[in-house]
Amino acid sequence: MSIAAGVKEILGKSLQIDADGNLVNLQDWDEEIAGEIAKEEGIEVLTEDHWKVINFMRKVYSDTGDAPSIRKLTMQSGVDTKLLYALFPKGPAKKAARIAGLPKPKGCI
Amino acid sequence: MRNLVILGAGTGGTMMLNRMHKLLDMDHWRITIVDCDKTHYYQPGFLFLPFGIYKESDVIKPKSDFFPGDAAVIYSEIWKVLPEYNKVQLESGEILDYDVLIIATGSRIAPEETEGLKGELWQKDIFDFYTFEGAKALAEKFSKWEGGKLIISITEMPIKCPVAPLEFAFLADAFFEDKGIREKVSIKYVTPLSEAFTKHNCSEVLGHFLEDKGIELVPDFNTGRIDNENKKIVSWDEREIDFDLLVTIPTNKGADYVGKSGLGDELNFVPTDKFTLRSANNENIFVIGDAANIPASKAGSVAHFESEILAENIMHYINKEPLEAKYDGHANCFIESGHGKAFLIDFNYELEPVTGSFPLPIVGPFSLLKETRMNHIGKLMFRWVYWNFLIRGRELPVGSEMSLMGKDIDTILKPATN
Q1: Could A5 and B414 be called an inter-chain contact, meaning their C-beta atoms sit closer than 8 Å?
Q2: Where are the domains of chain B?
Q3: Using CB atoms within 10 A as the burial measure, which of B177, B185, B288, B324 is most buried?
């Protein structure tokens, strides 16, 4: 879990966020909140493919304690790299983690 | 006789060989080290080869110079580890039994992972500098190149020595300036990260440097393929960047046998406990350096600091004690900034790089997160330290655990976001 760096108002709830702007508490997240964060990331509607990625990320996070890298996503989520970038332009792992209510993946050291 | 087998005789493997040779009772233990290459490369020196700062002989020595006399050395490719039988199978078919195994086979560039990277322009207009051959070929190219669009591009994280591409950009700027053709060279620094470096405190300082040197930063660019015909790199989301000369850091992967043995993650790095350095899935397999998936930089200094902890924990394991030694993620890197100057950064899992002096308060002699001539001298001196102390497993005056001495702690804004 990451450290709170601020508070953000989403759908009338005050939620703690970390320095990257990601939610601090997993339990604060729900599908409506995800929809709101997605809009901030420029994604108006979350489609079935978006959810495939988001659910995969939450599952990996609960299994391993870290959000998956792009490579793990494309190898195991059933969404290929091309589609992944179409769904979450520019930084899929980072964006999808944020929408999934998870901290930024640790992959980048 | 019990068997310690070390796979890989690079920086980490050679250090562990020397440390364990001193710690183990050689009447009861046999140590075997396996590597496919007889040459030890001083990999930090590859950065300097393209610019003619180092010559080939500065970065190579026979591996055998650094092995204790009674170690068994096998030069071979590794085929597979069979963890359920405690055996290693070599490519020749030879089988090695182990009681304790150390994986030290590092990471390698994998240009084959990116479409078009190893196409017709490979080593003509597209180069790497993470291999001896690549750095040499690039030196040859630079000696004749008359200018154009130079692109320095990181394909995918994580990579070995994440500061090296930045250093390369700074050195290239200085090199073409000294050559009198800087105005004919445009330099772009293309990275999948959102800023210049993995550590935010450094990015702020180094990002400015890029700007001052007229190097354009292109962040959030994930290379999907290389268009050889039109000389473009193309991102997965279809952005394009033209190049005349592409210096690329291809995807980095762990050794193939790691994947084949079922010991690796999606990039063949071994899931490893970041404190004890034991593999996550096998109690008698330990991992050092780039081969591990731990959230520390893939760098020689990390392998060095780890080696002290790992040696202690292997002795604990052998003596059936809890693995008490804990690696703190300590890394220490000189960052060349061109024209005979350099930065120095020192950080761990918890704390971001800060300003201050190193290793001693006030007197230094090195300055943290600041550009000085002394830091550059330190970087050059380090080669001697490496050959004579580091890989021989001799102690350095810098402990494995990161010290707060001399650091401007009030500049610490927040813990590292690993």
Answers
A1: yes
A2: 2-106+255-318, 111-251, 331-411
A3: B288
Question: Are A108 and B235 within 8 A, CB to CB?
Answer: no
Q: Which of A1, A3, A45, A108 is the catalytic position?
A: A108
Residue B266 to residue A94, Cβ atoms within 8 A: no
Clarify whether A77 is annotated catalytic.
no
List, for residues B61-109, the tens digit of each pLDDT value: 999 999 998 899 999 999 999 999 999 999 999 999 999 999 999 999 9
- Residues in chain B within 8 Å Cβ distance of A75: 266
Q: What is the ipTM of this complex?
A: 0.74
Instruction: List, in sequence order, every beta strand (DSSP E) within B272-320.
Output: 285-287
Under CATH, which number does the domain B2-106+255-318 receive?
3.50.50.60
For residue A85, the distance in angstroms to the closest alpha carbon of chain B comes to 6
Contact call for residues A79 and A67 (beta carbons, < 8 A) = no
Q: With CB atoms and an 8 Å threshold, state whether B417 touches A2.
A: yes
Closest approach of chain A CAs to the CA of B417, in angstroms? 8
What is B313-371 written as a DSSP string?
Answer: HHHHHHTT----------EEEEEEEETTEEEEEEE-SSB----EEEEETTTEEEEETS-
Question: What stretch of H or E contains B108?
Answer: strand B107-109
Q: Where do the domains of chain A lie?
A: 6-99
In sequence order, the β-bridge partners of residue B332 are B346
Q: What is the pLDDT of residues B137-163, one digit of tens each?
A: 999 999 999 999 999 999 999 999 999
Residue A1 contacts B, CB cutoff 8 Å? no
Q: Which amino acid is at A98?
A: R
- CATH number of the structural domain B111-251: 3.50.50.60
Q: Using a CB–CB cutoff of 8 Å, tell me whether A69 touches chain B.
A: yes
